[in-house]
Amino acid sequence: MLIRPRLIKLVNKFTLNRNVFSVRNELALSKRKYTNSLILGLETSCDDTGCAILNKTGELLAESLHSQNLMHLRHGGIIPDIARDLHSSSVEPVVSETLQQARVTMDDIAAIAVTLKPGLPLSLVVGMKYAKHLARKYNKPIIPIHHMEAHALVARMQHNIEFPYLTLLISGGHCLLAVVEDVIQFKLLGESIDMAPGEMFDKVARRMKLRNIPEFAQMCGGQAVEVAGSRATNPHLFKLPLPLADYKDCNFSFNGLKTSVLLHLHRKEKEHQITADKLIPEVNDLCAAMLMATSRHLVHRTQRAMEFCQQNNLIPDSKKQLIVSGGVACNNYIFNALSLLCHEFNYQIYRPTPKLCTDNGVMIAWNGLEKWRRGLDIVTDLNTLDIEGNSKLGESFISKVAEARIPIKLVKIKMRC
């Protein structure tokens, strides 16, 4: 009878030791699986602090994002000094949270991919300095990332898209058309000569006072305009011009369109004697008109880019693909208009999920992974790295497009908001 308790104790001890060994063995296997095979991406180019970790197959292990959107909405726009301070306070917690979610340490990271251009200089500096701090502390190389290249490539993470392809990048800070030939090879066909579509939406939405509608209070300008436009009862009430209609290139312009919208708004405010925080009764119709005019402009320029690519054999008939990315790509009305164009020209159209259209750490990590696989831009001399507030995308073909003077019979886009 005395032997039995001792036997049970020995069995329990053996079982405990075996379980501890099993757990340690699993952790060791986990370490061997992840060691030096992960890419950490860090994004601080504007007003979002983003971090993500991908493994060598492109699987997303974890991501974190700290958005400054609500803070900047209160100020009526992004203030660089405030953006910098918010990045500075959030970058370390965001990176730590991502590592914790992925259940890895910096020892498991092969390289750090970080946005160095283009963007707000004060914001870019925060990401660069923290990436350098991590690189020095843990002896890791840095992969410098071009923000627009990351937008152009991230759709490849979710779709089977082969090079080359045409991309339209539309956001609050950029608007451009380019041929993506490889991970670091781009031909720029056109860009905005004044402002980006997202910037126009933000400024017009603020002037329309859409934020005074509780439902729109925490929406960005583009989202508020899209929702308001979807409720239009007479979307053809306002006539807006087609920007750059007489210019046979692929550049964009939204300043004149913004001015036309604001003139209509001013006239209606005068007609209805609108005061203080009131909105004009036709605000939904005006939003719809702006959406339609913006879509027509984007379709017009993209159509010429398709024609130019056809004439110059830049994209084979077997690979006719248009990738739309950037924050404004989340706008379903605009994306549907571009989808109709692609149908007419036998193009396949893709866009990343909405979360990956806006700024995020995942696209930076993915761009870093694509470069890592090919041994491109892997930097160990950290003193050679610096930010660039302005940076063109790839090789400029803008003048060649203009010289081609390709006439366009604009595809009719029959849509309702």
Automatic annotation (TrEMBL):
<dbReference type="InterPro" id="IPR000905">
    <property type="entry name" value="Gcp-like_dom"/>
</dbReference>
<comment type="similarity">
    <text>Belongs to the KAE1 / TsaD family.</text>
</comment>
<keyword id="KW-0479">Metal-binding</keyword>
<keyword id="KW-0819">tRNA processing</keyword>
<dbReference type="Pfam" id="PF00814">
    <property type="entry name" value="TsaD"/>
</dbReference>
<comment type="function">
    <text>Required for the formation of a threonylcarbamoyl group on adenosine at position 37 (t(6)A37) in mitochondrial tRNAs that read codons beginning with adenine. Probably involved in the transfer of the threonylcarbamoyl moiety of threonylcarbamoyl-AMP (TC-AMP) to the N6 group of A37. Involved in mitochondrial genome maintenance.</text>
</comment>
<dbReference type="GO" id="GO:0005739">
    <property type="term" value="C:mitochondrion"/>
</dbReference>
<protein>
    <recommendedName>
        <fullName>N(6)-L-threonylcarbamoyladenine synthase</fullName>
        <ecNumber>2.3.1.234</ecNumber>
    </recommendedName>
</protein>
<dbReference type="GO" id="GO:0061711">
    <property type="term" value="F:tRNA N(6)-L-threonylcarbamoyladenine synthase activity"/>
</dbReference>
<comment type="subunit">
    <text>Homodimer.</text>
</comment>
<dbReference type="InterPro" id="IPR043129">
    <property type="entry name" value="ATPase_NBD"/>
</dbReference>
<dbReference type="InterPro" id="IPR017861">
    <property type="entry name" value="KAE1/TsaD"/>
</dbReference>
<dbReference type="InterPro" id="IPR022450">
    <property type="entry name" value="TsaD"/>
</dbReference>
<dbReference type="GO" id="GO:0002949">
    <property type="term" value="P:tRNA threonylcarbamoyladenosine modification"/>
</dbReference>
<feature type="domain" description="Gcp-like">
    <location>
        <begin position="59"/>
        <end position="366"/>
    </location>
</feature>
<dbReference type="GO" id="GO:0046872">
    <property type="term" value="F:metal ion binding"/>
</dbReference>
<keyword id="KW-0496">Mitochondrion</keyword>
<keyword id="KW-0012">Acyltransferase</keyword>
<keyword id="KW-0808">Transferase</keyword>
